[in-house]
Design a protein that fits this description.
With 277 residues, the chain is α/β, with parallel strands linked by helices. The chain has eleven helices and four strands; from the N terminus they run αααβαβαβαβααααα. The protein has a four-stranded mixed beta sheet with strand order 2-1-3-4. The longest helix is centred in the C-terminal third of the chain and has 38 residues. The protein is elongated, with a radius of gyration of 30 Å.
């Protein structure tokens, strides 16, 4: 196997790969976009607006349950009018969640009967999960307070209704939480290397046959091992390029993530990028 032939094939494949702008763009989309996706997702998770800030809550039948409306407002939730077709609005993404209070709320409440409040949501929408969890927890908290007061009014200790309590002891540290994100970066780096050399590998094999250049290439006085090895090195070169781009962009994107808001401690710089590489 001649190294000069291998080097010539390597240069030829690299030049062809860089000239094919469509394949090159397809190969570089993932390494350049995945760090942005990670940063946007982490910033969204760290955004405290849906957990503690002012949010609008569309409510149907707000006049039937003033105590729930008062509890919402005390928690920083602004009650607004719900759309005419709440289920369709949630399905289309016009509203993240809609609360529906039945007309017989006061009647059943005075009779100490359970009242079913509908929370119209779309569980497939990740962006609304924090807001929905906040609203549901507020309703459950109010329900527990009312239940405890009813038991106390009847001379019953509220703790009787909870004979067994779960007390979780979380041993996770900010560094172990950050390690979970680091594992995701490692997975993305493997995918970046694979996707970047995949297009070049396809073009260097099936692409040669489609262009009709495979037969003239095989007619050259060169060993087939030299041809294959040169093409293989070209795919490695593109895979390494995609890996370097992905890790470099990730190191920059990590500087924009507020890890304190996520309860994480993670340092991702040049040294960590080299170690993953």
């Amino acid at each position: 196997m001649s190294w000069s032939i291998t080097r010539a094939v390597l240069v030829k494949e690299v030049v062809d790969g860089t000239r094919d702008r469509r394949a090159l763009l397809s190969a570089l989309i993932f390494p350049l976009s995945s760090p942005i996706m990670i940063a946007v997702m982490m910033n969204f998770l760290a955004d405290p607006t849906d957990l503690t800030g002012k949010i609008d809550v569309p409510v149907i039948g707000a006049e039937h349950a003033p105590m729930i409306i008062a509890a919402f407002e005390d928690n920083g939730m602004n009650v607004v009018d719900a759309p005419k077709n709440p289920k369709e609005a949630v399905r289309l993404g016009e509203e993240e969640v809609v609360i529906s209070i039945p007309k017989n709320f006061n009647e059943r409440f005075e009779q100490s009967k359970p009242v079913y409040i509908e929370v119209i949501l779309d569980e497939s929408r990740v962006v609304s999960q924090k807001r929905v969890a906040r609203i549901q927890s507020q309703i459950q908290r109010l329900s527990m307070e009312i239940g405890m007061k009813r038991l106390m009014a009847r001379g019953v200790d509220p703790s009787v209704a909870h004979p067994i309590m779960v007390s979780p002891v979380n041993m996770a540290t900010p560094r172990t939480k950050g390690a979970n994100l680091l594992e995701m970066v490692g997975m993305f780096s493997v995918m970046a290397a694979f996707l970047c050399n995949m297009y070049v590998a396809i073009d260097a094999t099936a692409g040669e046959r489609e262009r009709g250049s495979l037969e003239p290439l095989l007619l050259n006085p060169a060993s087939r091992w030299g041809l294959v090895f040169g093409k293989w090195l070209a795919t490695i070169a593109f895979g390494i390029t995609g890996e370097i781009l992905m890790l470099s962009c990730t190191a920059i994107a990590m500087q924009q993530i507020p890890f304190e808001g996520l309860g994480m401690c993670l340092e991702f710089g040049a040294m960590e990028a080299v170690q993953i590489f």
